[in-house]
Every structure is written in structure tokens, then in C-alpha cells.
Amino acid sequence: MIGIIGKKLGMTQLFNEQGQQVPCTVVEATPNPVVKVMTQEKAGFAAVELGYGEQKLARETKKGERKPRGRRATQAEVGHAKKAGLTAPPVVLRSFRLDDAPGKNPEAPTYTVGDIITVGIFAPGEKVKVEGTSKGRGFQGVVKRYGFHGGPNTHGNTKHRKPGSIGAGTDPSRVIKGKKMPGQYGNVRHTAIGIRIEKIDAERNLIYLRGSVAGPTNGIVFVRKQS
């Protein structure tokens, strides 16, 4: 289903008609241009590629002149954006399936390159899927990563935050796959389903989503219609 790319601004609160306080995540979704269209005949599925933001372009420099600092868009990205009539390539590109699932090919809406997708495709009260990347917390132990209780802090104990035994000796003589152990915590893609849209601010391109959404402030999120 069609969706939109946005940026998580943070959280706030709204009050509904019953006077109840509703915690909301605010997502800024500026108009997304359609950069590419995939069809069932050519790609085997129907989808559109949307863009968000604008990259910096490299300016022409004279011989011996120092190039500007910071990342600039590549020639391939500039050429890809030029086919869609864009002056600058988007910062984020993301494809959204229109037929929603492999093997299904319902009457999907048609889009052409250059079309603009805005927050107007959503309505208050609608349920959506929200996809984001959780905060990366680096390499962490089992107490923080999985909530292990750890050992006692007194009576001569020296294994306060260690996981303890991780497997039997003779049988099976190995550590079972999927054992909860220290490692990378966070920085994974997370999809929340059934998120209710509380409010749409079309003038400021804002979407108010009920509850929390994975990701840090200013993180990129993808909001899709839920079939």
C-alpha cells in the first residue's frame, strides 16, 4: 500500500473530545515526489519509489581550488533524480508496494513519475504501519540488553552482572543457537502495526500518531497505509 517518508520530530500530547490526554508522536512528512514507477509487466510487481529531502550538489571547482567539505550527491544520484524532473537528488529513497503482497495484484492506484505524495493521503482515525530504526546502544551486557536480574550484591558474590551458565557440558556439548548473550543492542528496523492517526496538519505537513514510534528524534520513519 502507498505510504510516505517522514522525519520523527518528537512527542507531544493531544486532548480528544472526551477530554482524555492522548500521547502522540509527531512526524514531519514533506511532499514526497515519485522518482520511479515499477509495473507488474516489467518488474513483476507494482510499486513506486518515493524521495525525501534534498542532497547537496557538488559545485564546479577550478584547478587547484579546494573542494567544499561534506558529502555531495554522486553523478549517478543526480542522473536518477533528473529523470524524475528533480533539481536535487533526495536524501532518502524508498519503494512502496502497491499490490501489497507477492501473488496479489488487485486494482492498485496508478502513479506517474513526478507525482507528489502528501500527508493528505491519510485521514484522522485511520490505522497505519510505522517503520523506523530503533536507537543504537552499542555493545551491551545481558542485564541491559535482555533484563537479566544478575547475581546478588553481597555474601561474597563476584558475578553481579554476568549471565551465568550458558549451556550443558556433555549433552549437547555446545551453546544453543539464539542464546541470550551480550552483543549489539538496538539499531534494528522495527515495524509497529495498528498505529492510529490522531491528527493531520496539512499546512505544516505533520502527522500525529498515537503512542510511541521506534527511532530517535530526527530519525527517518516510513508511514504506510494498513490494508
Task: Provide an overview of this structure.
The chain is mostly beta strands. The chain has three helices and twelve strands; from the N terminus they run βββαβαββββαββββ. The strands form three sheets. A six-stranded antiparallel beta barrel has the order 1-2-11-10-7-12. A four-stranded antiparallel β-sheet has the order 5-4-3-6. The longest helix is centred in the middle third of the chain and has 9 residues. The model has no long low-confidence stretch (mean pLDDT 90).
Secondary structure topology:
Layout (H helix, E strand, L loop, with lengths): L2 E13 L5 E8 L3 E7 L1 H4 L3 E6 L22 H9 L8 E6 L18 E2 L9 E7 L5 E2 L1 H5 L36 E2 L4 E13 L4 E5 L9 E6 L2
Characterize this entry briefly.
Helix content is 8%, strand content 34%. By secondary structure, the protein is mainly beta.
Q: Which key phrases capture this entry?
A:
6-stranded antiparallel barrel; 227 residues; mainly beta; single chain; 4-stranded antiparallel sheet
Mean pLDDT: 90
Tally of helical segments: 3
Using the CA coordinates, give the radius of gyration.
24 Å
- The spatial strand order of the largest sheet comes to 1-2-11-10-7-12
User: What's the N-to-C terminus distance?
Assistant: 7 Å
- Structural class based on helices, strands and sheet pairing: mainly beta
- The tally of beta strands, per DSSP, is 12
Proportion of residues in helical segments = under 10%
Which range does the strand content fall in?
A: 25-35%
The gross shape turns out to be: extended
SSE pattern, N- to C-terminal: EEEHEHEEEEHEEEE
Please outline the major beta sheet.
Answer: 6 strands, antiparallel, barrel
Task: Provide the low-confidence segments as ranges.
Answer: none
